[in-house]
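Hello support,

Our group uses your service weekly, and this is the first time we've seen a run hang past the timeout. The protein is Glutathione transferase. I'm not sure whether the cause is the sequence or the server load. Input pasted verbatim:
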Amino acid sequence: MASGCVLPNPFRILAITEERPSVHPFVLVIVYAEADEAEKSFEKMKFNCIQRAHQNTLETLPMIYLTTIISAFKYPIFAASACGLWTVARLFYTWTYGSGHPAKRSLSSRIGFFILISLIGVSSYTTVTGSLALLS
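Update from on-call engineer: The timeout came from a worker crash unrelated to the input. Re-ran successfully.
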């Protein structure tokens, strides 16, 4: 199920690639449009939002992968379900944030964060109980 997390990445990359020429028409890759430009142009604001959603997903993926794998040692159904739900929440997050209205991402962001915290808790429990079992 963890491999399913990367499936949305090509779509985010395509969305960024599609929006980039309207924001930065030259070859030099600039990650974000300047704040004053984004305030004046909805297209530049939308580009920044899509780019940030993509970047935020890449920042979160290592934690999702690690906690899913550790949790799966003891609770494979929970781990797969949580990872799948996180992926759906992240798709919704990208769609709402990428609309150019950052406030719309609030619900999907909270759902994804709750799932991440759940995975952290279960993976921590799995690690501690596994370690204690080895010591006894």
